[in-house]
Design goal:
The protein is mostly helical and 128 residues long. The protein has a single domain, classed as Tetratricopeptide repeat domain (Serine Threonine Protein Phosphatase 5, Tetratricopeptide repeat), CATH 1.25.40.10. It is 81% helix and 0% strand. It contains 6 helices and no strands. The radius of gyration is 21 Å and the shape is globular. It comes from Magallana gigas (Pacific oyster). One of its GO terms (biological process) is positive regulation of mitotic metaphase/anaphase transition.
Length: 128
């Protein structure tokens, strides 16, 4: 009969293998998800729901910069939104200011996003 420690280490190895395997599968699914939503926003750039789903899949600016997104005004709304999600508040504010300069000054969505950016910056400065 194998010792208890040997069985525990075998069990731990199996669990670690499964976790790694699940992680690899999750990465594959994440990549496929990004591809699907990038295809969607390229074919239907006014589909705000697809843009928002894409926001949930992008975890850093480097990943964002690799995306092949359509040259469409809706992309600016997306970039402003994702920059705030990534805590790149100054960049988000620049985009929202540009949108307000282009005629969206009364947009309640943009006003709320600008307020969120300032709130994020205030909260971050009090932590530092």
């Amino acid at each position: 009969m194998p010792s208890r420690n040997r069985m525990d280490s075998v069990s731990i190895c199996k669990q670690e293998f499964l976790l790694v395997r699940c992680g690899v599968e999750k990465v594959k699914l994440l990549k496929e998800g990004v591809e699907v939503f990038v295809d969607t926003v390229n074919s239907e750039p006014l589909h705000w729901g697809a843009w928002l789903e894409l926001v949930t899949l992008i975890k850093d600016k480097e990943s964002l910069l690799t995306l092949s997104l359509p040259n469409h005004w809706m992309k600016r709304f997306f970039l402003g939104h994702i920059y705030l999600e990534l805590q790149l508040n100054e960049e988000g504010l620049k985009i929202y200011q540009h949108l307000m300069d282009k005629g969206f000054v009364k947009s309640s969505y943009i006003v709320s996003q600008v307020a969120m950016a300032y709130n994020n910056m205030r909260g971050r400065s009090s932590v530092v």
